[in-house]
Amino acid sequence: MKILYVSADYAPNASGADISAHSLLSGLGARGFNIIALIDERLRQRTDSHYRDETGVSFRYTADADLELTLDGLRTTLRPDVVMTQGLWLDRMLDWSASREVPLIWFVRSMEHNDCVHAIDAARPTWLVANSPAVADYISRVWNRDSVTLLPLIEPAEFLAPERTPDGTVTLINPVAQKGGALFSQLATSCPERAFRAVRGWRQDGLAKPVYVEMPANVTVDGPFTDMRQVYAGSRLLLVPSVWEEAFGRVVVEAMINGIPVLVSDRGALPWLVGDAGTVVSADSPEAWQKALEAYDDPAVYEAASRKGIERARMFHPERLIDEFASRLRLAEERGWPAH
User: Would you state the torsion angle of the CA atoms of residues 96, 100, 103, 106, taken in this order, to the nearest 10 degrees?
Assistant: First the structure.
């Protein structure tokens, strides 16, 4: 099967969605699928240098203004069986695939797409792929559509620290407003005796630049890191105080792989994601966050959550998830892709 993946952005040093997309594409390539990725030409140097020695995914590039023209050319020369997309070119991909009657798979990684309802009704993408049960429920309630669920792909070896030497640090990944940066800053101010760490997220050289929340003196702000194992090696707790509806939250799984208890807000997929391996706290209550944080000063509470996290992380093993998705793709090809 020949698959054309189209997105303005791409891993590495991009979002978790882009990292998961590359893991899926390379995994499908290793399973015999013919994978071509069409991305923004401004990323040519980054992807060429990072993936030069990898196999499984071949790259094509286009200027933003030439997207549809490039797609028409690739449709003629490559004749893809299906097109996959996510990200900044979504609206244009919906229009293009519908007008050419090309099967389209859209990876839905956000619950912030209310303005897309009419476009979705018109374009009728062939598959909607949710990245969590929360997103699948959103698709069903808001769009009245069925979906396939594919959890984000997280390779344990890429995040498991060789040796854990936690120094008491309470860590936040990506200290921007929507990820709870303001609450984290307030919590650190209320707990001057504790050491906090705010690790800048990806996208430093992406097409959109992050705006980080200012932190007090007891917060070490560093990163981003291409190897997150050094972060997890020293972290005692991970906080994910997101104030928006998180579609997934891959840092939760990365921490659980390392046996790090996680405190998450009550938004989106986070409560389901952490299960009984951490604590769910109201996103609107700094006092509740301080109380939840103090609970992990009890060694018994900490060790119990650590063990449960390691066990829960096993449900996200990428090889099994890719195998299941590859089987779905092959079955769809055999039966014929449904019309828009």
Answer: 10
119: which 2 tokens? 């476009």
Delimiting residues of CATH 3.40.50.2000 domain(s) in the chain: 2-150, 156-315
Q: What fold characterizes domain 156-315?
A: Rossmann fold (3.40.50)
pTM of the predicted model as reported, rounded to 2 decimal places? 0.87
Q: For 25-67, give the DSSP string.
A: HHHHHHTT-EEEEEEEGGGHHHHHHHSTT--S-EEEEE-GGGH
Angle of helix 250-257 relative to helix 299-313, nearest 10 degrees?
A: 110
Mention every residue, 6+ apart, whose C-beta is less than 8 A from residue 317.
Answer: 156
**What's 176's DSSP letter?**
B
**What is the chain's pLDDT, residue by residue, as a tens digit (340 residues)?**
999 999 998 876 567 888 899 999 999 999 999 999 999 999 888 887 777 667 689 999 999 999 999 999 999 999 999 999 998 899 899 999 989 989 999 999 888 765 555 556 656 788 999 999 999 999 999 888 899 999 999 999 999 999 998 888 999 999 999 999 999 999 999 999 999 999 998 655 555 677 899 999 999 999 899 899 999 999 999 999 999 999 999 999 999 999 999 999 999 999 999 999 999 999 999 999 999 999 999 999 999 999 999 999 998 989 999 999 999 999 999 988 764 4
- The encoded tokens of residue 331 equal 């079955």
Task: Extract the tokens encoding 98.
Answer: 């519908």
Pick one of 2.60.40.10, 3.90.550.10, 3.40.50.2000, 2.40.50.100 as the CATH number of 2-150: 3.40.50.2000
Choose among 290, 306, 175: nearest CA to 236: 306
Instruction: Report residue 294 as tokens.
Output: 């103090």
**Tokens found for residue 102:** 């090309």
**Would you call 300 helix, strand, or coil by DSSP?**
helix
Backbone angles phi, psi at 264, to 5 degrees: -125, 160
